[in-house]
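Dear support,

I submitted the protein below through the web form. The confirmation email said the job was done, but the results page showed an empty box. After a refresh the structure appeared. I'm attaching both so you can tell me whether what I see now is the final result or a partial one.
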Amino acid sequence: MSVLRFGRVLPDRPSPLSGPDWRQADPRWMARALEASQRLPHGGWYVLDASDRITSTPRAFRILGEEYVAFRDGEGVVVGPDTCPHMGARMSDGHCKDGMVVCPWHGLALGRSRRGSWRPLPVHDDGILTWLRLDTTTTAPTAEPYLPTRPTGPTLSAVMRLEGACDAEDIVANRLDPWHGVHFHPHSFGTLKVVDKTDTDITVRVAYKVAGPLAVEVDALFHCPDPHSIVMTIVDGEGTGSVVETHATPIETEGRSAVVEATLATSERPGFAFAATWLSRLVRPVVEARAARLWVEDLAYAERRRALRLRGREDSIPLDTKAG
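What the results page shows now:
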């Protein structure tokens, strides 16, 4: 199916690369870019989920093999161990009352104060995502996570969360391979070419399908602000300034991670502010469903990458670029 572009027409921008996608997709470059991202500081911060999904109903989360409970107490989000300090019940099985989480076994109420082994942990709620800080010896803690630049005008936000049998680095690695987009997701991408590439970042011109063959063309920059995140920023075309933040949270120390993707769309087109404000409840589920469809497929990519890595075939074997 051919692509019918609409919206702003971008000036021609030649690609610094040539040849078919399988030649351009150099696993050696991807490995170097991923390695560079893994050396970045992250301040101990991990994304839990969308801010509005943390409510006064206790909710369980697992990060790096440890269990936590999150809830709102009227002042903000509270996160602590998902184990009652009395006899070990799951606090996430309890309920909230008067701004505290109540143990389902014996009624012990816990909140922002320490009590026995109950110790609330540092939390950051940026209005879109809720982050938890785990202080370890492997990274220097920071007051806030390393947030990317976000839109300043009217913004439509949507957040998707899925889990997969892969490591956090496999999720980041997936996004450092834009060449798979047209082949692996033909339902969402019409055309894609790399228009700029550095040692760590990459910019692509992509025709994103909106409905059937109708597509908008944008230039999108991918960069990693920390080892567990990769951000796509639209730098030219429709929705310039919009970002898609992909955050990988390790559920276990190895073998299972969550991907939390936040889409923050903006536009200077008339009517967008109305849509972002009054139609968001209708549009947000559509955006989240499309993101989930992509990530169901991309988690299969990430899981396959991990399986190959465990078999000693990390990033596969570069083909001879002069062959074929």
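Response: this is the final, complete result; the empty box was a page-load delay. The CA atoms of residues 112 and 120 lie 6 Å apart.
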